[in-house]
Specification:
By secondary structure, this protein is mainly alpha-helical. The chain has one domain. It contains 2 helices and no strands. The longest helix is centred in the middle third of the chain and has 59 residues. The radius of gyration is 28 Å and the shape is rod-shaped. The termini are far apart. The mean pLDDT is 81.
Length: 98
């Protein structure tokens, strides 16, 4: 729970000096006089931020999976090229036939 709060605080901190109302889904809760309304407002903001973090987490996992696939493909290509280079180098070591 503390980690989520810290991430939410970090996300809000990254917004810079922009007021919270500029962020879609975030409400300004400090103007509420009633404690119950203020609490529900804050809870709404927390739920919104958790949803956004979940969406971002899914997007990052998809990017990581795509990157892992691309990396394994590139490793295969590098290995094929190494094999080809070794074949060419071993062929050039043989004396030229006349």
């Amino acid at each position: 729970m503390l980690a989520r709060f810290l991430v939410a605080a970090l996300l809000l901190g990254l917004c810079g000096s922009a007021p919270a109302q500029d962020v879609p889904g975030i409400e300004i809760c400090t103007k509420e006089r009633d404690l119950n309304r203020r609490t529900s407002c804050l809870q709404s903001n927390v739920e919104f931020l958790q949803q956004q973090m979940a969406k971002q987490s899914v997007a990052v996992q998809e990017k990581l999976a795509a990157s892992a696939t691309e990396i394994s493909s590139l490793k295969g290509t590098v290995e094929m090229l190494r094999t080809r280079i070794e074949q060419l180098q071993s062929g050039s070591k043989a004396p030229p036939a006349k």
